[in-house]
Amino acid sequence: MRILKVISLLLDYPEAAVQAARDELNQAIAAAREISPAQRQALQALLERVAGQPLLDVQEAWTELFERGRYLSLLLFEHVHGESRDRGQAMVDLMAQYEAAGFAIGVKELPDYIPLYLEFLASREDLEAREGLADVQHLLALLAARLAERESDYAACLQALLQIAGCEPETATAGIEPGQPDHSLEALDRDWQEEEVTFLNGDSQGACGTSRAPGKPREEQAVPVHWVGFNDNAVSAGKA
């Protein structure tokens, strides 16, 4: 599903390659019939900002938004059990699903990093991709609500994913209180103590992995996934 690749790029750490591919990405969004015209316009507006501003400015804004604690972390399992010891098996299970599908991770990024998970789903059949999004729709809805509360244009990405999963953004976020940012381990464990996530009908019981340290220089962190083009000769950085 091509639109998942676009959303993955928009959610990922901004790079010059994305800015250079603005026209191609804009065309891909315009052609996406999996989402409504309003959602397409919202994604195009985000793309225009990311591609139209100085790269260092959009990188700084992205880091400030997504890497200052767990409140808006793009690691799915951060919102499930935080630092709970239950995280290990879920990460192993997710890695096993990647490998069983022939999806080899060629970057030093955690399997539950949302842009990477979207790359995996983009390689699957449409029905399987939708099911994969539906598995985590409550987490996508949470992030969508928190981003909307901050009036961030990145909310468009999460809202589009909810729509692709077959859940209208307004319905998915109904009843969710964005709340105030609380980056403490105690707060996250309290909020998500009973929550579980299963991926593509798997039996994950938690999450694992280590998040990036807030404020850590980008060059010392895991390298994210990137697509440069959508033609048949394009090579995904996330696959062997």
Automatic annotation (TrEMBL):
Pfam families the record matches: Nitrate_red_del
Recorded coiled-coil stretches: none
Superkingdom, taxonomy of origin: Bacteria
GO terms of molecular function: metallochaperone activity; unfolded protein binding
Record SUPFAM superfamilies: TorD-like (SSF89155)
Keyword terms of this UniProt record: Nitrate assimilation
GO BP term (any one): nitrate assimilation
UniProt-recorded name of the protein: Nitrate reductase molybdenum cofactor assembly chaperone
Organism: Pseudomonas jilinensis
